[in-house]
Design a protein that fits this description.
The complex is a heterodimer of chains A (380) and B (383). With 380 residues, chain A is of the alpha+beta class. Chain A has 11 helices and 9 strands. Chain A folds into 3 domains: 114 residues, Butyryl-Coa Dehydrogenase, subunit A, domain 1 (Orthogonal Bundle); 99 residues, Butyryl-CoA Dehydrogenase, subunit A, domain 2, CATH 2.40.110.10; 149 residues, Butyryl-CoA Dehydrogenase, subunit A, domain 3, CATH 1.20.140. In chain A, strands 1, 2, 3, 4, 5, 6 and 7 form a 7-stranded mixed sheet that branches. In chain A, strands 8-9 form a two-stranded antiparallel sheet. In chain A, helix 5 runs antiparallel to helix 7 and helix 8 runs antiparallel to helix 9. The termini of chain A are close together. Chain B is of the alpha+beta class and 383 residues long. In chain B, helix 1 packs parallel to helix 4 and helix 4 runs parallel beside helix 8. The chains are: A alpha+beta (380), B alpha+beta (383). Chains A and B meet through helix 7, helix 8, helix 9 and helix 11 of A and helix 8, helix 9, helix 10 and helix 12 of B.
Chain lengths: 380, 383
């Protein structure tokens, strides 16, 4: 058992910090970046590719660098720390992860090669109006005619769906199950309406009307693959949230030490200090769960991944709400403004919380199985 | 980064597990499992067995019966003991006065006290809190005045846990009334059979008699019973309280009670609301357990991990929350706390409320949870 990062992992963290942390050191830069489409910095995206970050989780033969979940988690945490709007989580971890898991050799080389090189932004079109964090599709259906597949239905919200150069679309298969398809979003039968999300992100309504789709790999039911990649995405979303929460706690304590009212700094008031202490407790507990879940992924135990993702997801959801809400309250009115960073962090934490499953969603899953075991041993 | 225990640590865990579940009498472990009160003899017997196998005071220096273990192994030892329902070595002996004597006491004091402290031949009581010195411990007023070769002690201590069994009591006493309040305190060992020592029980809200008041009236104490330097007692107390906080998060025991509570729950576990309560508590306990592991993994260089202050705060909150859940599972049966064994109601249900009420103490002792928040705010966050 070892919770320390090795030298290479430390170096990766420093490098990502040096690039992304520096780029968004001034919150105003982030604000102007998300004000206009595509909602992130294309040049920074390229530089992330040059650094090897966009190909981090993929095999060398697919154009990646073959790093593990711990490295991916480090990137996610550093992105979260500065609220970087680049779609690392949705394009690389989720959409890229699905291609890596389900794509043929040729598809992996082509799609992941372009993604890793920063030449192509990948989107995962999965959520459908009326569904809540399932691993299957129902509103979008796939039909087959000879070797050709066509897709019909609406996906929304699709993260960065309007900007994406290529979409991975989940669709209900004629004989049951859910398939994964590569879709060229500029082709006939695909219409996209993009919009900004509350946290400065981007999403889109993607309507498919007899749109052509190419099955990933051999096709067939990919529900289990989707579930597994969503679980990895959940753990990485937790890591991103940890970075954001660390920033919020740091920002809040600095504010308490500098802001004056009644002629004294706010940290004169124990009522406020105790609330900051409780934020610290929430953060440390959430960090423990997240680090552990990342290590479960790293240990390559597929049967434990879902439980680990739910457990970290529940803990981080609770912590994210607590810290996100208290950070605003302890700052007061200034944190309600778009100009000041703190409130935007709360907004992004709320978005992360609802991207892949909120705390109650995970609690429902865990509660349904709580009688299956006497106690839970995290060391296995 | 590596999740699993090393092969050596895994073997160590197995060794502890086997020892605790085979060498400690079943009757003692059943008493703990069923949350009944242990007798003095049971506590002594259990610690004697542990001590005979070098497992009572591993945190002490090796020459006095300690073990040269990594922080992780100490953690495993502590967790497995709780998991196996083995009573923990008496904290007053094993984690409080023992380490203080070993660290600051004279050779003579070490020889005289440490072996019998490890084996529980001497049962120690703690004489720290006073009626007007709780969280503000340094305002204590019990005095010790030197008269020839003896101190004369006068004053009152309170919340003395299990003081009715005590052979000796370790005290913080004021030896220099002129000095700044922390600087005039000494650490003094007193034989509880000395003339002038009176122990009076305090009846508690759970109906039990766990704590006492201890009165000192012109008690004469040999000068040799002073630990370390005169007026340096506050430093020793801080050392002691630091040790106390490390083992104060009862993760293993709380996990075990939650696991037992699933059995108590029976069909109630099919109720989604009850199941969700279990799942949420289980997850919070997991977060706490992992935090404890992070702390031990990072404290190898001797410096405590800053997150250790989280352990006492959250650990006691969860201990209390699980005891509250058990009362709710018992429902109306929890009212039968005064019923005897001929009651038709389950023993666990009858004991649920006294345990719940008793555990309200957990967020008060060992530095109240508000003191812990103060430590986090000041020391960690710099507020």
């Amino acid at each position: 058992m070892d919770f320390t990062y090795d030298d290479e992992q430390q170096a990766l963290r420093e490098a990502v910090r040096g690039l992304v942390g520096k780029a968004y050191a001034d919150f105003e830069t982030r604000r102007t970046t998300v004000a206009d489409d595509p909602g992130f910095d294309e040049k920074l995206w390229k530089r992330l590719a040059e650094m090897g970050v966009l190909g981090l989780p993929f095999h060398e033969e697919d154009g990646g660098s073959g790093a593990g979940p711990v490295e991916v988690a480090i990137v996610a945490e550093e992105m979260g720390r500065v609220l970087a709007p680049e779609p690392f989580l949705t394009a690389v971890v989720l959409a890229g992860g699905l291609v890596a898991a389900a794509g043929s050799k040729e598809q992996r080389a082509e799609v992941l090669g372009a993604l890793s090189a920063g030449e192509s932004v990948l989107g995962f079109a999965h959520a459908e109006p009326g569904t809540r964090w399932t691993s299957s599709a129902s509103a979008v259906a796939a039909t087959q005619d000879g070797d050709e597949w066509t897709l019909n239905g609406v996906k929304e919200p699709v993260p960065h769906g309007a900007r994406a150069d290529q979409l991975v679309v989940s669709a209900a298969l004629p004989d049951g199950g859910t398939g994964l398809f590569l879709v060229d979003p500029t082709a006939d039968g695909v219409s996209r309406d993009g919009y900004a999300t509350h946290d400065g992100g981007r999403a889109a309504r993607v309507a498919l009307s007899d749109a052509a789709g190419v099955p990933l790999g051999d096709g067939g039911d990919a529900t289990a693959t989707i579930a597994a990649v969503l679980d990895i995405g959940r753990v990485m979303a937790c890591n991103e949230a940890i970075g954001a929460m660390e920033f919020q706690l740091k920002g809040t304590t600095e504010y308490l030490k500098s802001r004056k009212q009644f002629g004294v700094t706010l940290n004169t008031f124990q009522a406020l200090n105790f609330r900051a202490a409780d934020m610290y407790v929430s953060l440390e507990l959430a960090k423990s769960l997240t680090t552990w879940a990342t290590m479960v992924l790293d240990a390559g135990k597929p049967d434990q991944m879902a439980v680990a993702a739910s457990r970290a997801g529940l803990g981080v959801s609770r912590a994210g709400r607590h810290i996100g809400q208290e950070a605003i309250q302890l700052h007061g009115g200034i944190a309600m403004t778009a100009e000041y960073s703190i409130g935007s962090y709360s907004s992004h934490l709320t978005a992360l919380d609802h991207l892949l499953g909120d705390g109650d969603h995970h609690l429902r899953v865990l509660a349904a199985n709580v009688g299956d075991h006497e106690e839970f041993d995290p060391l296995g | 980064m590596q999740l699993e225990l090393s092969a050596e640590d895994a073997a160590f865990r197995e060794e502890m597990r086997t020892f605790f579940t085979t060498k400690i009498p079943q009757e003692i472990r059943d008493t703990v499992a069923e949350r009944r009160e242990l007798t003095k003899d049971q506590i002594v017997e259990s610690q004697r067995i542990l001590n005979e196998h070098g497992l009572a005071v591993p945190n002490w220096p090796v020459e006095w019966g300690g073990q040269d273990w990594s922080p992780l192994r100490r953690h495993i030892w502590h967790e497995e003991m709780q998991r196996a329902c083995v009573p923990l070595p008496l904290a007053f002996n094993a984690s409080m006065v023992g380490p203080v004597i070993a660290q600051f006491g004279s050779e003579e004091l070490k020889k005289r006290f440490l072996p019998k402290t490890a084996s529980l031949e001497i049962w120690w009581s703690q004489g720290f809190s006073e009626p007007d010195a709780g969280s503000d411990l340094a305002s204590l007023r019990t005095t010790a005045v030197l008269d020839g070769d003896e101190f004369v002690v006068n004053g009152q201590k309170t919340w003395t846990t299990l003081g009715q069994y005590g052979d000796w009591i370790f005290n913080l006493v004021r030896t220099d009334p002129e000095a700044k309040k922390q600087r005039g305190i000494s650490f003094l060992l007193i034989d509880m059979t000395s003339p002038g020592v009176t122990v009076r029980p305090i009846e508690m809200i759970d109906g039990g008699h766990e704590v006492n008041e201890v009165w000192f009236e012109d008690v004469r104490v040999p000068k040799d019973n002073l630990v370390g330097e005169l007026n340096a007692g506050w430093d020793y107390a801080k050392f002691l309280l630091g040790n106390e906080r490390v083992g104060v998060a009862p993760v293993g025991a709380t996990k075990r009670v939650l696991a037992q509570a699933k059995k108590y729950a029976g069909d109630q576990l099919d109720d989604p609301l009850t199941a969700a309560r279990f799942a949420e508590l289980e997850n919070e306990l997991l977060a706490l357990e992992l935090t404890a592991l992070r702390v031990v993994a990072h404290s190898a260089d001797g410096k405590p991990h800053p997150a250790s202050s989280v352990l006492k705060l959250k650990g006691t909150e969860l201990q209390q929350a699980v005891s509250e859940l058990v009362v709710d599972l018992a429902g109306p049966a929890s009212l039968a706390s005064g019923a005897g064994d001929d009651s038709d109601l389950d023993g666990w249900a009858r004991r649920a409320t006294p345990v719940y009420l008793n555990l309200r103490k957990a967020s008060i002792y060992g530095g109240s949870n508000e003191i812990q928040r103060q430590i986090i705010a000041k020391t960690i966050l710099g507020l």
